[in-house]
Amino acid sequence: MELLKLISLTSAALTLVYGLLVLTFIKGWYSLNLFKKGIFTPVTKVSVIVAARDEALNIGRTIDALIAQDYPKNLTEIIFIDDHSTDNTAEIVASYAASGIKLIKLNENQALNSYKKKAIQTAIGSCSG
Asked: Which CATH superfamily is domain 46-125 in?
């Protein structure tokens, strides 16, 4: 019987310690300061390069999501590379030209036909400073 009593007391003590530990964690959690977005003025120009081929079903949502970013529009450059699409991907991207979206169509006759190289060349070519 003594062993059973000892086990019961030990279990009760451990349960009490565990409960106090959980309460300490909860108190610590609620005492954390909430994150507050500081005043930050970005100065770095960002180029977003998207290669697309036959993405007419998805490209509109992608462009809308990129345009909706809260980074300053004057520091953002969005370049889409049409990699020989057989659907109307290029036409959809071109319809966003007024929003500052650039479209580059790859052409088999060009010496530089890698979409990565062409996009980087375009982004670097428009850099200033």
From this structure: Spore Coat Polysaccharide Biosynthesis Protein SpsA; Chain A (3.90.550.10)
